[in-house]
Amino acid sequence: MRAVADVVTAISAVFLLLALAERLPFYGIYSSPFGVIKVGSKLAVWVCAFVLMLLMEITLRRENGQLTRLLTRPTPLRLFLFAMLVYSANGRLIGAVDTIPARYLPFTILREFDFDFDEFDFLFSNRGVPAYLFLAHDHYLPFFPPFAGLLALPVYMFSVWSGVAPTSSLATDLEKLSASTIAAGSVVVLYMTLKRLTNEAAALLITTLYAFGTGTFSISAQALWQHGPSELFLAATLYCLVRGMEERRYSAYAGFFPGCRSHLPIHEPPDRLTAYDLHPFPSARSDRPLLAFRPSPGRPPDSV
Fold first, then answer.
1. Does pLDDT of 47 surpass 80?
2. How far apart are CA 241 and CA 194, in angstroms?
C-alpha cells in the first residue's frame, strides 16, 4: 500500500509541475461520441491532488494508515497541507484590481530583476495609468507595497522560468496558489506559537478557528491582498517574542517582522495591530510567557 501511495504521489507531483509549466499533454479541446470535451489545465485541481496524495502518504508512513491521527496528532507539516487543501478547493481567484500588482511583480523580478511594470503594456496601453500603478521617472511602478509579490516568488519561480507568459490565464492561478501558501504559512506559525503558550488541544482549537473562521480563509487565502503577508509577519513576530523568553536571540529576530509590517497599509484590519507594541512577560502563576499590548508612541489607541 505504501508503494502504491509513493507512486501515486510521484505521478501527481509530475502532473503538478506540468500544469505549472503549461505543458500538460492532454490540454485542449477534443471531440468524442458524447460531444466536444474541453480539458483545461486548472492548477487548483493538480494542487489539491498532490496535497491530498502527500497527506495520505504521510499518514501511511507515520501513522500506520490511521487517518484520524491527522487531526488528533497534528504536526506543522500536516496543518500546512490541510490548510492548503481547503484553501485551494474552490479553484478560483477571488480578488480585485488591488491585487494585480502583486500578481505580476514576480514576473518582472524573476525575468528583468527590477520592480517596474514597463513591460506589461497590456495593463496601461489603452486606458492610461490605472489606479494601482503610478508613473515616476518614466517608469510604471506598483502603488502597493511589494511584500505580497516578494513572498510569492518561490511559487512563481518554476512557471516563470518555464516560459509562462504574464498574459496567460495561469497568472491568476499562480496568484491564488501564492495567497493560499502564505495564509497556510501563517496558520503553521501561529500554531507553533500557541503550543508554547498553552496545551496542544487549545492550540489546535484556536489555530483552527483562525484558519477557517476568520478573514484568513475568506480574504487572505483567496488573492494576494496585503492581509496575508501582514498576518504572516504578525504570527512570526509573536513566535519570536514568545520563544525569545527562552532563547534571547529570538527577541532580536522579532524586530524584523514588525519592520516589514510597518510598510503595509494601516487601514486594513489585520494591519491595525501595527499601532501597538507587543511585550512578552513572565506569568506569576505559570511557566509560560504572556503577551501584553500597549499603544505605540505617537499613535493613539483611537487611531485603530
1. yes
2. 12
> Which triple of cell numbers denotes residue 1?
500500500
Grid cell 480574504 is found at: 219
Q: Kindly give, in sequence order, each residue whose CB lies less than 8 Å from that of residue 162, ignoring residues fewer than 6 positions away.
A: 20, 21, 22, 23
Calculate mean pLDDT across residues 200-208.
92
pLDDT of 192 above 80: yes
Compute the Cα dihedral for 137, 140, 146, 149 and give only its sign.
negative
Q: In 54-213, where do the E strands start and end?
A: 133-136, 139-142
Q: What share of the chain is helix, strand, coil (3-state, %, to 5)?
A: 55, 10, 35
Measured distance CA(69)–CA(42) in Å, rounded: 31
Rounded distance, CA 255 to CA 180, Å?
25
Residue closest to 118 by CA, chosen among 138, 100, 102, 99: 138
Give the model's pLDDT for residue 22: 86
Q: Is-contact 79 188, C-beta < 8 A?
A: yes
Residues 6+ apart with CB under 8 A from 41: 19, 22, 24, 27, 170
- Cβ partners under 8 Å of residue 178, min gap 6: 106, 148, 151, 152, 155, 156, 224
Q: Is the separation of the CB atoms in 170 and 164 below 8 Å? A: yes
Residue at grid coordinates 502597493: 144
The phi and psi torsions of 36 (rounded to 5 degrees) equal -80, 130
DSSP of 217-276, one letter per residue?
A: IIIITTS--SHHHHHHHHHHHHHHHHHHTTSTHHHHHTTHHHHHHTTS-TTSGGGGGGGE
